[in-house]
Amino acid sequence: MTFQKRSSSSRHTRLAHAHIVFRSLTAALLALIFGFAVMLLWNAILPGLFSVHPATYWQSVGLLVLVRILMGGSLGYRRYSFARIGSRPAWSEYEEWWRESGKQSFQEFSADRHSDQ
Q: Where do the structural domains in the chain lie, given as residue ranges?
């Protein structure tokens, strides 16, 4: 009896599929939990404050999606990364401008502002 060795590409494919399934299940579980939490908070706070109708579970999930859309960003993508602050090319351009004319511009602005008072 001979055994065939599986190729690394099939192992990689299986891992990729498992990762997709895991992330999908995690997202569904988080939507369930956060939707329920939003529904509880909405129904506990807002009807007494603003006389609004209680929210259903699906309205709460829709509210979460709406907030996500309005506040921007998509899953897995971060526009602002604090780990990359030093790597921005514009930062070196700003330092160069500050050395050449920034201090003088600031002093002129400050003098004008204090002379108006």
A: 8-72, 88-117
